Amino acid sequence: MDTKQRILNEALSLFSERGYSAVRLEEIAKVVGIKTPSLYKHYKSKQDIFDSCVEVFSQRMENTRNDLRMPGSQMASISYETITEDQLFELANALFGFYLLDDVASKFRKMLMIERYHNTELNALFEDLFIDGAVAYEEQLFSGLMDAEVIKRGDPHVVALRFYTPIFYLLQKYDMRSGEVGEAEQELALMVREFCRTYKWDEGQE
User: Fold this and answer.
1) In whole angstroms, what separates CA 2 from the centre of its chain?
2) Tens digit of pLDDT for each residue in 165-199?
3) How far apart are alpha carbons 106 and 168 in whole angstroms?
4) What percentage of residues in the chain have a pLDDT greater than 90?
5) Among residues 149, 158, 168, 182, which one has the fewest Cβ atoms lying within 10 Å of its Cβ?
């Protein structure tokens, strides 16, 4: 791992523990094992480091969605017409695991959760990624499933809220209990199965 990547990794770790605003460049350099002037050879400022964290997280999230071949992704292989209950659970479980356990995604999320109370811009980013933006993505998914008559017709936004809200709750519940991921997956499975029982498309019923 080169120095630039080490700086990014250590900075994100510190940001996730104490928040972005509380960490100084001197502290990042010390953890990496370099002098502060050497840090400027790789990043212009702390904001530059943060912007790189955003880029890495965004790319990692896009890659995950493509790897899962989710409907609407660039590499989609699962169609709205053919998605099964098991596939819906697998998608939900994989995304849940990504946000909870992925080294970059979990630290990035924790950093924003700390900082959102101090920084309106970072709060807006948190809401876009993990609240409004996440619900909008689910809304698009369920709108497609309704059009394909896989689930019952309803308000896609409300359906997305009912699907995503328990996932958001589980992220908060198990955020500090990653060793209990098996229990988290069991709860998630129950949630997805109950959701499918509620919204499963019944032929001939609008």
Assistant:
1) 26
2) 999 999 999 988 878 989 999 999 999 989 988 88
3) 13
4) 54
5) 182
* Residue 157: CATH number of its domain: 1.10.357
Beta bridge partners of 151: 200
Contact (CB, 8 A) for 12 and 53: yes
| Helix pair 46-67, 85-101: axis angle to 10 deg | 160
* Angle between helix 46-67 and 103-115 (nearest 10): 130
- Domain-embedded: residue 98: yes
Q: In whole angstroms, give the CA distance from residue 113 to residue 16.
A: 9
Count of domains forming the chain: 1
Identify residue 3 by its one-letter amino acid code.
T
> Looking at the chain, how many residues does it have?
206
Q: Is the pLDDT of residue 75 over 70?
A: no
pTM: 0.81
Distances (CA, A) of 15 to 18, 120, 137: 5, 16, 27
Tokens for 88, please give them.
Answer: 């819906």
Has residue 60 been placed in a domain? yes
Q: What's the token pair of residue 144?
A: 């497609």
Mean pLDDT over the full length of the chain: 87
